[in-house]
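A brief tutorial aside. Many learners find it easier to grasp structure tokens once they have seen a single protein encoded end to end. The record that follows does exactly this for Protein YhfH. Read the sequence first, then the structure, and try to relate runs of similar tokens to stretches of the chain.
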Amino acid sequence: MMNVIEFFRNLPQKKCHKCGHAMVEKADCYGNLCDECDHPAR
Ligand SMILES: [Zn+2]
């Protein structure tokens, strides 16, 4: 019953290379930057 949790726990946690903030899975689209650092309005 813990398969999903174990799966995510075993994944390396992605972090923003700029601010070091931990990112969730959609971060793949932004390379190594979080939403704040890769904000389109900047
Ligand atoms: Zn960032």
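Self-check: The longest helix spans residues 3-10. If you spotted this yourself, you are ready for the next section.
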